[in-house]
Amino acid sequence: xSHAHDNSSGSPIARAFVDARRAGRAVASYPGVQPxxxxxxxxxQDEAIAAWPDDVAGWKLGRINAxxxxxxxxGRLAGPIFSKAVWTAGAAPTPFxxxxxxxxxxxxxxxxxxxxxxxxxxxxxxxSVAPLVARVFTGVEIAGSPFAGINDHGPxxxxxxxxxxxxxxxxxxxxxxxxxxxxLTCSMSIDGAVVGRGGAASxxxxxxxxxxxxxxxxxxxxxxxxxxxxxxxxxxxxxxxxLAGQSAVxxxxxxxxxxxxxxxxxxxxx
Length: 270
Ligand SMILES: C=C/C=C(\O)C(=O)O
Known about the structure:
- By secondary structure, the chain is of the alpha+beta class.
- The protein has one domain (8-264): Alpha-Beta Complex (Fumarylacetoacetate hydrolase, domain 2).
- It is built from seven helices and 13 strands.
- It has helices at residues 12-23, 38-51, 68-72, 126-129, 155-160, 177-180, 207-221; strands at residues 56-63, 76-82, 86-88, 94-98, 103-114, 133-145, 165-173, 185-190, 193-199, 230-232, 240-241, 247-251, 257-264.
- The strands form two sheets. Strands 1, 2, 3, 5, 6, 7, 10 and 11 form an eight-stranded mixed β-sheet that branches.
- Helix 1 (12-23) crosses helix 2 (38-51).
- The longest helix is centred in the C-terminal third of the chain and has 15 residues, at 207-221.
- The radius of gyration is 17 Å and the shape is globular.
- Residues 1-8 have low confidence and may be disordered.
- The site of the ligand C=C/C=C(\O)C(=O)O has 11 residues, from strand 1 and strand 6.
């Protein structure tokens, strides 16, 4: 679904986040009344998606911890990943932009590639989504927002600004994932120091449960998940804050490493 160059956003919050992201500048405080529910947050997110000049290439999932999970009625949140912010990892560290005075973090993740457009229905489970997945990759989610406090005011605030996503680095394809996925482990280092260890088992219900959550959510939001889209299934080692000038390495053992480096943001390339 393409929303490129649709500038019809009526939400001042969506407009403020979109403008700040495009200009590469921070917003000092939340730009409006904070949404009180996930539905209100996704309404803002939908307006921002419509105003962002790029296509949705996939979705990120993030965990909602207690006590917010009970308060907001969900264990995860979702946000769009845009096509111009998906990079393929190479031998050299992949650069990514961070907004000075905003929020930025790196997260080692397992990425699912959808093999077929998912039927538009509710009731998905980790078991029923498995046949939809064509390939699984290692990855690094770049979490990022112009608002430094994006994770400090509960999940509805986080979800309202693209779910705190600023991009995705695509790593190696994971061979034999149907047999191996549940047992995969990884670590994350920043500037040479290990900042987190974990794996697929760190994600509640596993990566396929993240996909099931997303499909059920998108059904309620009137959106579809399409063949070829990528799902970043949630932080496997934690959400690791990073500053411009710092480097990170996600180590997936036999499935390879992803190196990246944070650089100071300018305007989004148009
Ligand atoms: C920054 C948001 C949180 C996540 O992305 C996560 O928990 O995976």
